[in-house]
Give the backbone structure.
Amino acid sequence: MLLVITNRSDLSSDYLILKIKERSIPFARLNTEDYGIDYKIDINLSKTSNRFVIKYKDGITIEDEEISAVYFHHPSPPIVEDVVTKIDQEFAAREALEVLRSIWRMIPEKKWLNHPKYLWRAVNKVEQLLEAVNIGFHIPNTLITSDKDSVSSFIESTNNHIIAKAVKHGFVYREKEIWVASTHRLSSSYLQGYETYAEIPISYQHEIDKAYDIRVVVVGHQVFATAIHSQVHEETEVDWRLGDMLDIDLNHEKIKLPGGIENKCRDLVKLFSLRYSSMDMVYSKDGEYFFLELNPNGQWAWIEQEVGYPIRESIIDTLTKAGDDEF
């Protein structure tokens, strides 16, 4: 049985499950925010055996030994507001999350598409860039700092061709709204108002003169590369993600990466002990490929819908073989 660990509103998981059902593969969905609401968990530990059981409120139970593979995508913290009084909510949320993290540890690593502990390591952008360079990728010259003098020197070294972005990610959650701090090109007057940002470390990079952006999806040994023609519109030249927010329909195109670049993509994903990852790259007007960042739990469904890659099939095929493969 495939276990899909996700949240209630994850569209990629919905899309994957449609294909799982089409292929008549037994599965169960575990929305992490519903722990204590739609299901409960028993963990039994002893000298002779260690096991857990997931008990859904509809009477279905899943024993740990029934789980053949796990797809883990964007879980959410357990919701406890309707379960316990306000004064106990912080405690209850912490305890519920710890139980979930405990059963992640009890499922053998070989059954996961990506085990959470490897995801948590792989999300660090500095380590990604370090390992990408070690593998042989080109990367943009990068400075992470909150020091004005360092930024000034870096801007000068790039002839004012510089972009700024968040060190971790650009999503800011404010109550029920999601704000995006997009990657943006810095103006010549940036340093004049620098004190506004002085206490916030920011990632600065030499801006690459792009021909187009590239989204790469790696599943097992398969590499699916897509050119995103972001340079056609001024609004998406620096950050193609703004196309969705501004309702700009960017052209997506299947491309074949050179063999050496494909191998580097596989090697980087394998280095982080992952079986799946997306990554962002740039193809420059000078004909060079630049690695930007790894998205170990990144979105993929829209790429399949845009250009027709069989990414769902590849994910499911990898999951159905997961118990037989070693990292």
Summary: The mean pLDDT is 90. The first strand starts at residue 2 and ends at 6. The chain has nine helices and 17 strands. The radius of gyration is 22 Å.
